[in-house]
Amino acid sequence: MTVCHEHYHALHADMRLALDACAHQLDHSFYAYDLDGLDSHLATLKQAQAKLWFAVKANPVSAVIQSLAAQGFGFDVASPGELNQVLAQGVSPDRILNTGPVKTPAMLREFLQKGVRIFVLESHQQVHDLEAEAKRLDLSVDVLLRVQLPWPKSDDGSINVLGGSDPTPFGLTPEQWLPTEIQFSERLQLRGVHCFQWGNILDADELIANWQGAMPRLAALLDAWQIAEPVVDLGGGLGIPYTGQSDVIDWQQVCTALAQLKQQYNLGECWMELGRYAVGPYGYYVSRVADVKQNQGVTFVVIEGGSQHALRPALTNQAFPVQPLHASEAAPLPVQIHGSLCTGLDCLGKLSLPGDVKRDDWLVFSQAGAYGFTESMPFFLCHSLPAEVTLRGAELTVVRPAAPAASYLA
Length: 410
Ligand SMILES: Cc1ncc(COP(=O)(O)O)c(C=O)c1O
Prior knowledge:
By secondary structure, the protein is an alpha/beta fold. The chain contains 10 helices and 19 strands.
């Protein structure tokens, strides 16, 4: 079931004013994060009978991490950079979990030395390396096994963020994780399993069907290891509405399903690592129109920013919803929005904008609070980096000013 929010993408009058003030002050493309909206959303997520982690890759901005920390979230980090960014916000390392297909011995040592004690293991090599590093430092740590289930191809041919239904580098099959295939020393305490093979799902029925499809195979592995009160970490994958979508996932239904899974499979805890669902709707990418032109029957709106700031639309062929910063009554016109890179790949989508859109208008791309700037390709063509600002109440804080190419070129 999905909940339909017809006005989900509508820009609140207060937000319009705040973004307008940012545009005037910065005079450059920017990301803005609505911390009040984020806080009230996070407060509703806490009803779940699940331990919630934030997948830091979705948005590593300090103020965003601080909001999640204040709401009791743990942090799923995938690199020393993410680890250090979370620690720098005053988060205790016992609230940090490490997942990721690469964990070199040096990385593992750094994580252990900085106090991380929970790891999601993705290969036998990682088991051996973590054991060696834990032994060297005379520590014992908790681990989950990342399980990759052979997964049927979807009917609509869509692929998920982790690579679709083909084998991926994330985790191993249940058979490879059986006690006959791998043993653990007393340094590693096996707490449970991790499985996450679905992406950006807006329909709670579909998400829950994925979980139910996975659970019997995960439960068989947990039985093989005879783990008391096991943990099942179901990753992320809860969607947010991009262009053409107005539904949002029914969080109540998700909570009920988690409680049922816990009971049905006698689990100690369910965990989730939320990325886009936690933060995506609370970010905007704002850029100015540089040119509007017709070419062979197509209206091109070319913006000053583009994929160097917001690559996700080009990567996924799924646009961030867009509207002009200043509301217009003009009839909508189909347009292609392009950025400033010299490649046809720099397309932010085939969308519709009011027919009077013109040079120097500002465009607001919404749902851009997750997988925005840090998922982009900021250096190509040596343009300036976008600014990042936070909005709380009437307060606008520039957390990262726009920076010219000279700030990063060797
Ligand atoms: C291990 C892991 N957990 C959680 C997430 C967050 O996923 P989402 O943004 O779909 O919630 C990701 C995203 O790639 C991931 O790799």
